[in-house]
Amino acid sequence: MNHCSRLQLVSLLLMLIPTIVFGGTQVVRTQGHEITFSTQGGAPVSWVSCFPDCTDEDAVRATWFDNGDGYFLWSVDKSVDLSKLLAATDFSFTQYETDEHVVLTAVSDSAVGGNVVSIEYRIPKTGYRIELSATGLEPLHLTVASGDIFVPEQLPGFGAIYSKVRPLLLVQYEPEYIEPPAEGWQYEDMHVLSSIGLRNRYWVWVMKPGLQTTGKAANARINRPVVDLAAARDSDFQASLYVGPTEFDSLKQASPGMPGLLFAAIWDWLRALSFGLLHLLDWLYSLVGNYGVAIILLSLTVKILMFPLTYVADKWQAQVNATASMLKPKLDEIKKNYSGEEAHNRILAVYKEHDVSQFYTLRSLFGFLIQIPVFIAAFDMLAENFVLSQASFLWIEDLSKPDSVLSLPFVLPFFGGELNLLPFVMTALTILSAIVQEEADLTPDLMRQQRIKLFLMAAAFFLLFYTFPAGMVLYWSANNLFHLLKILPERLRRTS
């Protein structure tokens, strides 16, 4: 069946979903899932996953699809009519429990295409790894599409990068997040050792096919990927699923390699640093019991660990400042009286006279460059850290979202319609540090230029972070606070 006819099949099956809703249902509840199966079609019509426990009213929940908003459908490629018949067939359910699973078996009450269809769902009592098998029709397909209800809140500005639902291909636990066009794209002929799925920021659905099963993905529309597994002809359908949070321990419980889903957008050595910061944050949380406080302590801990490097960077910066102040009068005079090649030659002569390399200012970049890897690793960790979802701190209701304190009566382009307080706190700390900081080795002119650069950097970070999740802004605000506390005593000593 070609791609166009496959999409036509899915469209026909979607027309059947409203009738499925009114059929008989069977509900399975485990620690991690609340799944409603329909006797018509033998498939789930509503699927909710929870962390840490569905019985906890404060649990974090994700609804993958619900009664027509998204779908989980069994179909067959032999003909559209046969697939329609399968979706309309009544099934009887048998449910029993083992030590580790709730097992639900759906058997068709009548023959479909001359065969009785049997589908088995093995749902874990704890954890999120589910096993599927089906017999009776070949080649049997399983098509899954998340609903609009699964699409995260659409953040404005740069925060929009955390609002996507994307298809992914997982090869030996190394994810490839694919950015297809809005419609019509597909990934065909997936290798049997790969998995295919979809995810938003904090939840992931990964289907690993059994032998003789392949997969593909498509975008029904923006943020609505569709994934499909198909058994080969003359073969039963088999697959294992991970349907759950991107929380480190849950992923590792499903398979030791599954945490490889995290921090995939950065280089491997930075990923190792992100995992280290993740475990450090968890340890700090175990001490203080609040993730907001733990993030502040994480920022302080990173500063302490990096002190030897920043101490050297500060020494080099002081040397650069002293050299710049020494050279400035002569360089200003040259720029005032000469131009072009002559000015260039005279400037080089000044450098040679004082035995200074024309690239001496590059040493001042060291302090900035040593922070970039930690900055990237920390922000990736905070962006993808599931445990920050619904975690509160002070006025911040959810550290995984911007810290909205009130809704504006209007919507600003890029900034949205919410007033976020924390970015203002972060920027104020940066500006205050720029005002307080004085470099003894800098002339007043150079000091003024440095402050202007710091003010511009504060404005750039405000634009970048305004719609970012509060946990990330809190980390950088704490970093700015500790920098201010570091330089304030020296300023007070000089003015006293």
What is the general shape? elongated
End-to-end separation? 83 Å
**Could you describe the largest sheet, including whether it forms a barrel?**
9 strands, antiparallel
User: What is the typical, i.e. mean, pLDDT?
Assistant: 84
> In DSSP terms, counting alpha (H) and pi (I) runs of 4 or more, how many helices?
11
Percent range for helical residues? 25-40%
Q: Helix and strand succession? A: HEEEEEHEEEEEEEEEEEEHHHHHHEEHHH
Uncertain segments of ≥5 residues (pLDDT<50)? 1-5, 7-22
Number of strands: 19
Strands in their spatial order, largest beta sheet: 6-7-8-9-17-14-13-11-12
- Name of the CATH class of the largest domain: Mainly Beta
Estimated radius of gyration: 29 Å
The fraction of residues in strands falls at 25-35%
CATH topology name of the largest domain, in short, is: Beta-galactosidase, Chain A, domain 5
Structural class: alpha+beta
Short description:
This protein has helices at 3-21, 80-88, 248-254, 268-288, 291-305, 307-337, 340-353, 366-384, 422-436, 444-465, 470-495, and strands at residues 25-29, 33-38, 44-51, 60-66, 71-76, 91-97, 101-108, 118-124, 129-135, 140-145, 166-171, 174-177, 194-199, 203-209, 213-221, 224-231, 237-245, 404-412, 416-420.
Notable traits:
single chain, 496 residues, alpha+beta, Beta-galactosidase, Chain A, domain 5, 2 domains, four-stranded antiparallel sheet, 11 helices, 26% strand, elongated, disordered N terminus
Plain-language structure description:
The strands form 4 sheets. Strands 6-7-8-9-17-14-13-11-12 form a 9-stranded antiparallel sheet. Strands 1-2-3-4 form a 4-stranded antiparallel sheet. The protein has 496 residues and is α+β, with helices and mostly antiparallel strands. The N and C termini lie far apart (83 Å). The longest helix is centred in the middle third of the chain and has 31 residues, at 307-337. It is 40% helix and 26% strand. It folds into 2 domains: 3-261, Beta-galactosidase, Chain A, domain 5 (Distorted Sandwich); 268-495, no CATH class.
